[in-house]
Amino acid sequence: MSARVLLAWSSGKDSAWALHVLRRDPRVEVVGLLTTVNTTHGRVAMHGTRAALVEAQARAAGLPLHVVPLPWPCPNETYERAMGEALAAARERGVTHVAFGDLFLEDVRAYRVRQLAPTGIEPLFPLWGEDTARLARDMVASGLEAVLTCVDPRRVPAALAGRRYDTALLEALPAGADPCGENGEFHTCVLAGPMLRGRVAARPGPVVEREGFVFADLVPPGAGSPSEPPAC
Q: Is residue 232 part of a domain?
């Protein structure tokens, strides 16, 4: 029997690449995407991606999207309670595993394992331990199209916000920056790639600085610019 996998979906390149990898594994059936949305601003935390774009990504992936609504601000106990309820519902639907796009942060992996332990659902880390320089090149070479939607200006230049994730971007990263942004240097939103059936349409929006991060908005067709800047 194949593993029935719910994929933690941030809207970014790593979760998208995890979907690509999982779909090539005959032992796995990806049955949906799981994301959290800040209900105050209607966006995915840190990535700043609008909920409408995440919905468009799910349609392009051909998978149901399961949204966990979160308040803003969101204490950790509130987050854990909401995720616990979502995981219990997933278990009722027959989900056996939740997959994550984490690459090498041991503390993050340990936290996810602890959170899943009481649920009866097993964790999967299909990208774990990959060489991130090689992984970044493979993503770009595959035709994956992503935009840097959040940048930590303490780690990489603020001017990279809004840039495409491509070879030129990788060459522009300062020494010591992880090419996949695993240390929090940047976050992305995927618009196209081998894991999607078509391109997700979006146009560049405003670039703003908020709470120490620089956010580059992506605006879906028919939507106006927000009255509030992207929120982490």
A: no
Q: What is the DSSP letter of 111?
A: H
Residue 48 lies in a domain: yes
CATH value at residue 23: 3.40.50.620
Cβ atoms 53, 220 nearer than 8 A: yes
Q: What is the pTM of this model?
A: 0.94
Domain range for 20 is: 3-219
pLDDT band at 73 (very low <50, low <70, confident <90, very high): confident
pLDDT tier for residue 226 given thresholds of 50, 70 and 90: low
Number of domains observed in the structure of the chain: 1
C-alpha span between 147 and 192 (Å, rounded): 10
Angstrom CA distances, 161 to 42, 68, 84, 222, stand at 20, 27, 33, 23
CB 200 within 8 A of CB 191: yes
Rounded CA-CA distance 137/57 in Å is 22
Environment class of 220 (CB within 10 Å of its CB; exposed 0-12, middle 13-18, buried 19+): middle
**Residue 227 within a domain:** no
Rounded Cα distance between 65 and 12, Å, is: 15
